[in-house]
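A further point concerns the way the authors explain their paired sequence and structure data. Each protein is reduced to its one-letter sequence and a matching series of backbone shape codes. An entry of this sort, consisting of the sequence and the corresponding backbone structure tokens, reads as follows:
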Amino acid sequence: MKKLYILLLAVVSSASFGQTFYSENFGTATGTLAIADNVFENGAPIAYSGTADVRSSLASSGYNGASGVRNVFINAIDEYFQIDGLNTSAYNTADLQLSFGINTPTAVTNVLTVEVSTNGTNWAPITYTPSGTGWTLATISGGVIPSSGTLSIRFKSSTILQYRIDDVKLSSVSASCTLALGTATASCDGFNLGTDTYTVTIPFTGAGNAAYAITPNAGVVGGDNPNAVAAGNIVITGVPEGTAFSATIIGGTCNTSAAVNSPECKPINILPLRDHFNYADGASLGAQEQWTNINSGDNILAVAGSLSYPNATSSGNAVSFTGSGIDCFSPFTATNSGTLYASFMMSVTDLALAADAAETYFAALSDASRSFKARMFFKRTGTQYQLGFDAPSFTTNYDATLRNVGDVVFVVMGYDFNTNTLNAWLNPDLTSFSASTPATLTVTPATAITELGGFILRQDNNPTPTMTIDELTIATSTSELLAVKQNAIAGLEVYPNPVTNGTLFINTQANAEKNIVIFDVLGKQVFNTTTANNAINVSSLNKGVYILKITEAGKTATSKLVVR
């Protein structure tokens, strides 16, 4: 293990290389807003104006320090975005550096113009070279940006091509500083439910000629010592997952910094996967350990209360979404044989945003790389709606039943790898549901699905109505769809429930040998025994809500179990 050489703890802002004294990521509002209506990261004396707008779509990515939230959208001749009230007078022009994220269209013939002014009237263009198409980081080095107490910067287009701007930063980078930092990278130390830690690696060259103080906002400094070696890697360990990392490095004439966004150190969920959405009202689904966000926009949110359906177990809360926004992905153990099932309850609560006859898919099974394989569709029909099921992007495979706002629908999606058959069951009788129950909708994919490894909830612009989703279960057999409360065992009695003294009694008509399996709400098996006894010792279980699965003579029953 390499020696720890300096640790100074401080809270510093996320920065690019150099002492960043101005940074703007365009806030965290949602939707498309005019410049005047957007809430920016910086307030007075900084002022923002222009004929462009600010959007949540196509969030920045792919460059160091990309904020991935909102960005400025410019797509018309003479359309512009302007920043006034910048003060660079405390810094030398030779040391001033401007950087910004830019999304450049594929067929680029005209580069978006960047101009500076010290009086808001006379504008001087700045030359810069985009490093590629899509999102990249543009950097304008020292000697170009004026040292002024009244600096303005303007981004202006002379074309109808679409440009986006994000993460505008002004930094002071000493021209005599030889220390150069490479791109910081982050890697997870573990993938567990709950908060993990991650390690940051910062490559450097041009060191070994001064005493440097390294100040991270979190973690422990180690790796190669820039005081002693010219090149190497500074390594910061123990940074909490979810904390964006930044660090300053000061020494000699250098005042530089590095930043990297936190990786998501989330596990692959084991099957059976069950999510009761027992998250705080208003919590973002993508922030939970079983889920991750896979694009940008407004979040899918937890809402108080549960949906109910005959003979189904409900607990916790639910989630709700509407219109366009973030899609949420829940990865699970990759499955490539047998049959895979996914079940959930759903209720459309408002049709206002859904155009009549426009269709959208709102839930899907995917492979591990998030490629859609099986999709549940919605289509508004007047004041009612229909549900469809298919593998392609669009479908004519709709159930004829017209459903109403407020109806609760129990959906089961299934794929049989052996027969290359997709089935969907809508509102099945859960007391008798099995793999042989006739499906409501059936599809034969043109190309057989080779793997399923994820479930996606999708927000698709205006066709998506306001809807609530609850009690998601993913399993490889119908008996493991533990949201289903089946009572296939004659004379079954389970008591007391709640359990208060550590002993659970299970009686049946046959009172034969039984396999007792108990799962927690995350789908983890916490108890498993096979016994002919009626009294089961469950004192090892913590207080909480569980799913109880009982198998006797080939028949299975499941129910909710509460331990107090």
Notes: Residues 1-17 have pLDDT under 50 and may be disordered. The radius of gyration is 29 Å. The chain has no helices and 41 strands.
